[in-house]
Amino acid sequence: MDYFVEKNSIVRKIWGKSDTVLFIFAGAAAEFALNKAVDWLYFTGRLPAQPIDRLFSTVSYARKIIFADNETALKTIDSIYSIHKVVEKNRESTIPDWAYRDVLYMLIHYSLASFEVLERGLTLEEKEEVFDVFYRFGTRMKLKGLATNYKEWLVQRNNDIENDLLKSRYTIDLFKQYRKHLGSVRYFLLIEGQKLIIPEKVRLLLHFRKFSILSIVLPLYKLTRIFQLDNAIKKLILPNKYEKEIKELDMI
Description:
Layout: H1 10-15, H2 18-34, H3 39-42, H4 46-49, H5 51-66, H6 70-91, H7 97-118, H8 124-140, H9 150-164, H10 169-182, H11 184-197, H12 200-206, H13 214-226, H14 230-237, H15 243-249
Helix pairs in contact: 2-7, 2-10, 2-11, 5-6, 7-8, 7-9, 10-11
């Protein structure tokens, strides 16, 4: 059977652990809030109303692509494409192509950054492999102007970060919603985690200091994984209602 992502791919290793996936979406949550097209995320009202639910919904779609056979993965991507076209029709406007590309590039960046923070440095070949998976995702979504290799992506990614991000009232509101739904302690951990993986431009726009308390805590946390205590820690730092979803994130 053909798979969209090969079984021994580094992409499966990255997306097969709850730690890494949670970091990916912590970083994306910060950058989403700054994107100049973030108003599209407010159109249906679902993101500000249920930001954590939307996170796990997005994870579900990603898993259907990364861990599925090729035919199922392509059908899932086509479904995502159709859903966005319905939103565009309802709003009577078109989501800018650069906004789609920004989201795709976020997934590449935070996949790489999260794995390197939690596990180890990636080789150039592994980074190119991650890029290739999301490039194929993007081409299936009919996106235009995509970089065609990892080195091109680095240049385009840096340009997009400089041109497409802006702190706005949506930024402020989204972070208020994060705090509301997570509570003060979990919100603090979210911010500290974001500091470890966000690009410098994002850090400056959000007025985050460089130092993260998690840079001290992470080595200790990695030790807990050896003794399989990490799940207990994740139960403490994430709302109880998501316990089942968190367990399902671990696939390797």
